[in-house]
Design a protein that fits this description.
The chain is 35% helix and 27% strand.
């Protein structure tokens, strides 16, 4: 097995983006792909590692870029400045996600009708919005994602299966937000499920998360459970 890695440039309007793709070249032919949407700091080593892990399991891992080539945040203020324009313009966010899906489908290693998407924190919002638009993909999984509805997809059926992996004590998406998205997903006819982890806060899968003030706290036990649930979800999808 040899995991291959490639940077892929693509453009949305006037913004040059750069995705990160990983695949196992010992596998012949096309295979399912999993898009990976990054957290608020931008496309970083964390999502690159997730792409490589997925490649080792026989998928194509494609880490999307939502901000622009080389754009990364290194503080709360910088991260917020990068994320806020997309959170405030959900149509733009959705269009950028749709383009990433299209670019992934164009890769020669990818079975175009076998694509799922996962996202972390801000990325969770991104993959949920992709599903909310009615995009044709197998499923989406949100790890400690932001959950608020975009306001422009009401009445749109959701065909993708949805998995929410969530800390019950997440200060950025509290239990009332969970109730709201459950109602939203049911109204959209989605096949959805939620795994909630008690005593767990935001960003619980990220070993670098240690900000008690913002409630960004790594939790190994919850992360292990969440990734196991995600593996089961992929087995179901593909």
């Amino acid at each position: 097995m040899a995991i291959q890695k490639q940077l892929i440039e693509y453009t949305h309007d006037d913004t040059l983006l750069e995705g990160y793709m990983a695949w196992d070249d010992s596998i012949s032919g096309k295979r399912p792909a999993v898009l990976i949407a990054h957290a608020w700091a931008g496309r970083d080593e964390f999502v690159a590692q997730r792409a490589e892990e997925l490649a080792a399991k026989g998928y194509v891992g494609f880490a999307l870029d939502m901000y622009g080539k080389g754009k990364r945040g290194y503080s709360v203020a910088e991260n917020s400045a990068l994320m806020t324009p997309l959170v405030q313009d959900r149509a733009l966010l959705q269009a950028r996600m749709a383009l990433g899906l299209a670019v992934a489908r164009q890769q020669e290693q990818v079975a175009a009708d076998q694509v799922a998407a996962i996202g972390f924190c801000f990325g969770g919002l991104c993959v949920l919005d992709l599903a909310r638009t009615g995009a044709d993909l197998k499923g989406v999984a949100s790890f400690h994602g932001l959950l608020g509805a975009p306001g422009n997809t009401e009445g749109q059926p959701i065909s993708a299966k949805v998995l929410l992996l969530h800390g019950y004590d997440d200060p950025m998406a509290q239990p009332d937000a969970l109730l709201a998205i459950h109602t939203e997903l049911s109204n959209a006819g989605a096949d959805w499920q939620t795994h909630c982890y008690g005593g767990v806060k935001h960003a619980f899968t990220n070993p670098e998360a240690h900000d008690t003030e913002l409630g960004l706290i790594y939790n190994n036990r919850a992360a292990t459970r969440a990734f196991k649930a995600f593996d089961n979800f992929l087995d179901e999808l593909f």
